[in-house]
Amino acid sequence: MPKFSAGRQISLFIALALLVGILASMTLSQVGLAAEPNVYERVINSGKIRVGYVTQPPAVMKDPNTGKLSGVFAETLIEAAKNLNLEVEWVEEVSWGTMIEGLLADRYDIVCTQVWPNASRAVHADFSVPLYYVGVGAYVKKGDDRFAGQITKADAPDFKVAAIDGEMSSIIAAKMFPKAQKVSLPQLTDVSQMLLQVAQGKADMTFAMTYDGERFLKSNPGTIENITVDRAIQIFPNTYMFRHGQFEFKAMINAALTELINRGFVDALNDKYEEFAGALYRVALPYRPSPLINPK
Q1: What would the DSSP string read from start to end of 36-62?
Q2: 19 is a domain residue
Q3: Which domain holds residue 143?
Q4: Grouped pLDDT means (10 residues each) for the chain, 296 residues
Q5: 241 and 174, same structural domain?
Q6: Which residue in 12, 38, 197, 271 could disulfide with 202, CB within 3.0 to 4.6 Å?
Q7: Same domain as 88, residue 140
Q8: H-type alpha helices, 50-165
């Protein structure tokens, strides 16, 4: 085995280290496209938050003439961005079934709508603090008393449950009513169409937040009814959604949102857009007054 002087050994070691460094650099450049983007750095450097949005009242509403967006979530995000010295760039309108796909493809930084966190979504995405909570009701055709007091009776092959692909109604249907037939509607379908399936007898039951149920009944009185008024099927926080691992971006957004919640800005929007009393459950403030304020 050849012997090398100490100087020669050091030179070989340096050459080997350089070679390893070059190979590592080449490998990193080859996988660079797969690296996680740093959303916080990009947003701060560009001064813009790229937003994908789903239109659904009262979170996001779009004026058909001007294209201007309004609603609790749209206006809160605009105000939060202004306080952060950032601009909101409305990149694209997306559907419930494609909103996570767009995040993972890095087409936008945040989804603006009333996203309900759940286990299946949490595998791929992360969520902000909620702006409000909502209850989900089980809706049947007016006068249909087959499920009164026991909605699980609908979990049978004889019954049809209407749901929108990718929307929470489809998740509730799959988890709680796996045996029932599914009347599936496309991803961009308005929630009212799901309720219409029940009103027209094409489905026996569907699931929607009470806000949507009341809006439908306002235009179609006496057609459907919520058989879970006393106890909602589920209660959901309503949040923004962004991709996993963006801790700095999440912290920045949550700080800006918390500021608006605590100063009453969000509640004022809730009051403005609630439309039906009791449809939106307010976020509880994380403190209580000092007893010294009103000494006995």
Answers
A1: PP-HHHHHHHHTEEEEEE--BTTTBEE
A2: no
A3: 134-235
A4: 54 55 48 65 97 94 94 98 98 91 96 92 95 94 88 92 87 91 87 94 93 92 92 92 95 98 96 90 85 64
A5: no
A6: 197
A7: no
A8: 72-83, 99-104, 119-122
